[in-house]
Design a protein that fits this description.
This protein is an alpha/beta fold and about 425 residues long. It has 18 helices and 14 strands.
Length: about 425
């Protein structure tokens, strides 16, 4: 059945490439894209044994950082390569400490480019984050002897419904994995409907393992109240700004750090602030300055540092249906955190925080404003909710150890670790 899956996938992927090729040709001709890197021609190859990590974009690369750090320390004989699909993912990978030995784009998932890539790097272990299933990359990596691990594996409700519909085609691909490391019981149940349950192990939410204590030191005035609106998506930006305008009438010392999720939204959000005549400053120009009512965080990889000094936080992509972003970052610092009703991308995390009363879920922008007003009026409530969220994150810090034990076990099975 794997042959059927591979055949159908390559027909569909070829059609996809034909459709998108004019767009990429335009980007190449205008100097916006280096097509050779996308095709797997990526320069010098690290010598020796290699572990390959892949995360689609910024968030997935970030959650892999703790594994990169621990592998570097515990398995120094291995080189580490990290790939991503997006430019923001590559930028994040280049900021990791320690740096991987190689950072590059995932090659276009067509057989010639995949083989060119794999035959040059010859990875021993391939670790794909969350639900990335690039079929040719996975199939040929396994055929060339690599062992496959799915890291922080998750399936949203919609993804599960689609995969279950095509189960006969999906199952052979999932069967290639030596380990599917899921976040919790719900993800295990969903994957068990699609593949052999013996390959599935609950290892925990890897986002809990990020070293949030290693953040940029930011100085703030104790007189200010700081509201961080993080990973805000299209459709949330203007209502959040209007909520801030309203709240500031009651709390004149309130400062908002506004962090759009994607760089292409930075200027649009700035234009909203200008039209409303709200004084603001840009992080890219003035750094962590709080001399204006709004600090527009127009930089990647800095949000956690601002969560660390916040009094209250909203995690975006949740009042418009994008599935929600990571509430663990503000919770780790004991910051009372509120999200909208769309949190399917982080469902198990949110449910656990809800159970401990470490997060507030609101159905609308009106309820968001009401919640923020209540919290800003009461240091006691903020402290109680923040402490509950912090306690949940502290209990989850052994996730990396779980992954390291599993990786070493797989290497032992292949006689690659002693």
């Amino acid at each position: 059945m794997l042959g059927v899956t591979l055949f159908l996938y390559n027909i569909l992927f070829t059609i996809f490439l034909v459709v998108v090729s004019p767009y990429y040709l335009f980007k190449v001709l205008t100097g916006r894209e280096n097509v050779l890197k996308r095709l797997g021609f990526i320069g010098k190859v690290p010598s020796g044994k290699l572990i390959w990590h892949h995360g689609a974009s910024c968030g997935e690369v970030k959650l892999l950082s703790s594994l990169v750090r621990n592998l570097r320390r515990e398995l120094p004989e291995y080189n580490i390569m990290l790939t991503a699909v997006t430019k923001t993912g590559i930028e994040m990978a280049k900021q990791l400490n320690p740096l991987p030995d190689k950072v590059t784009y995932l090659p276009v998932d067509a057989i010639p480019f995949v083989l060119n890539f794999l035959l040059r790097f010859k990875p021993r272990i391939v670790m794909f984050a969350e639900s990335e299933l690039w079929v040719n990359s996975l199939v040929f990596a396994r055929l060339l002897g690599a062992r496959l691990i799915m890291v922080n594996a998750r399936l949203s409700s919609n993804s599960f419904k689609i995969m279950r519909l095509f189960r006969p085609l999906v199952k052979p691909v999932l069967h290639l994995f030596s380990l599917i490391g899921v976040r919790g019981k719900l993800d295990k149940k969903r994957f068990a409907n699609l593949t052999d349950r013996t390959k599935i192990d609950i290892l925990g939410e890897l986002k809990f393992a990020s070293q949030y204590n290693k953040v940029e030191k930011i100085t703030r005035s104790p007189k200010d109240l700081i509201f961080v609106a993080g990973s805000v998506r299209e459709g949330e930006e203007k209502p959040i700004i209007e909520i801030f305008e309203s709240l500031r009438k009651k709390f004149p010392s309130l400062v908002m750090v506004l962090a759009p999720r994607h760089p292409e939204r930075f200027e649009f959000v700035a234009s909203i602030l200008q039209k409303k005549n709200i004084p603001y400053t840009k992080y890219s120009q003035n750094g962590p300055a709080f001399d204006k009512p709004v600090l527009l965080l127009d930089a990647m990889g800095k949000l956690v540092s601002f969560y660390s000094i916040a009094d209250v936080a909203f995690v975006g992509g949740s009042l418009v249906n994008y599935g929600g972003h990571n509430p663990l970052e503000p919770a780790y610092f004991g910051v009372p955190t509120v999200m909208g009703k769309y949190f399917q991308n982080t469902q198990e995390v949110v449910e656990e925080l809800k159970e401990e009363e470490g997060i507030k879920i609101v159905p609308s922008f009106d309820k968001l404003q009401e919640t923020l007003e209540t919290w800003l009026s009461s240091p006691e409530i903020r402290k109680k909710i923040g402490k509950a969220g912090r306690n949940v994150t502290i209990r989850k810090k052994r996730v990396v150890d779980n992954y390291m034990q599993s990786i070493k076990k797989i290497l032992q099975e292949t006689n690659d670790y002693h």
